[in-house]
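Section: protein folds

Sequence with per-residue tokens
===
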Amino acid sequence: MSLCFLFLASLISATLATPFLAETSPADLFGRSQLLTSGCSTTGTASCRNTSTVSNLCCFEAPGGLLLQTQFWDTNPSTGPSNSWTIHGLWPDHCDTTFSQNCDSSRAYTGISSLLSNNGASDTLAFMRTYWVDINGQNEQFWAHEWAAHGTCMSTLKTACLPSGSVRGAEAVAFFQTVVKLFQTLPTYTWLANAGILPTNSQTFTLSQLTSALKSASGGFTPALDCQSGTLNQISWYFNLRGSIIDGVFVPINSPESGSCPSSGIKYPPKSGTPATTTTTSGGGTTTGAPSSLPSKATIRSIQSGSPVGGLLTAGTWSTQTLATMTLSGTTSSFTMTSSRGNCGVSSGSLTCGSGVTATTFSAVSSGGNLLLASGGSTAFTSDGVPSGTTVYTVYTGSSRAQDYTLSIVST
């Protein structure tokens, strides 16, 4: 994939509720509406693990069954939040680590912003404008390139595999939704920070320090780290896939090859300089990757299917009763939250506020005019039911339970 990286060079926080990689389905991650469903089983053989030829490549990713979720650490100019890596893409390498690119010029869509916003994926687009940003501010070109170069080579996204009546470009919408959702399960910055590895200009790191921290946090999986002139600037997390890119299960694996970083003396500088102005040529005018400012006092309100449904009480539970006023300390990229009961934190996947609670470092993401609470980069929260009257529910991160929603930060 080095050719893609070279081409793009000229174009171009929190503790995760589940602190390790598990087999992950995009459809299960965030309760975000999907334009498509594949109808494929997710219990069969994973890509690159078959021992005989598979004929139905609509439900088995081939030949590009070695999938890389790649992330950038851009420092000058800096891109994205100062406490998060940003998305490079999702690449379908062949099982032997070779790869194909630009597989179908007839589907090299442009105007990605409009494609997403016109097909119910405005939340995906909002996230991309902060976390999938080009180093030179040319987001539209960057996104279009990633789709054309890599998305068109995914067998499970060929138009013949789509449900009858699918709109033109639906498979590209699914591609961007899946990439965003997968990225949100891979908080590289947070995993390094939790091991005491923070961006700095005053020290260097060994490759073993970096990979050991990431392997431990991810549940035993080693990524590939790439450097430029000894400076860390890219990471690749590897997966096989059960089912379709649209809604299949991503199975984490160790990197089959080493990155370009040296064994020692690796620089991990903080993001500096001014982020490039983000230009979107269609579907939303001009914006920047910086989220809105963080209020010092706020209520945390639940949004479910576009409608407000209560919010957080002082204990951090979901309720339709009078909402708690929370104190927020920090910036949108890194802040703590307290109620009158004490610190708010995520432990074992559930949110609580109270005395003795270890404070979690949250972040905030601008989406659809709302400033959304995020834990580990994810804005998804879930509960076992919908509150009513005096009935309240525990708030969990992710979307593994019956009721999915986001939490909006509303200044008081």
About this structure: The chain has two domains: 2-287, 297-411.
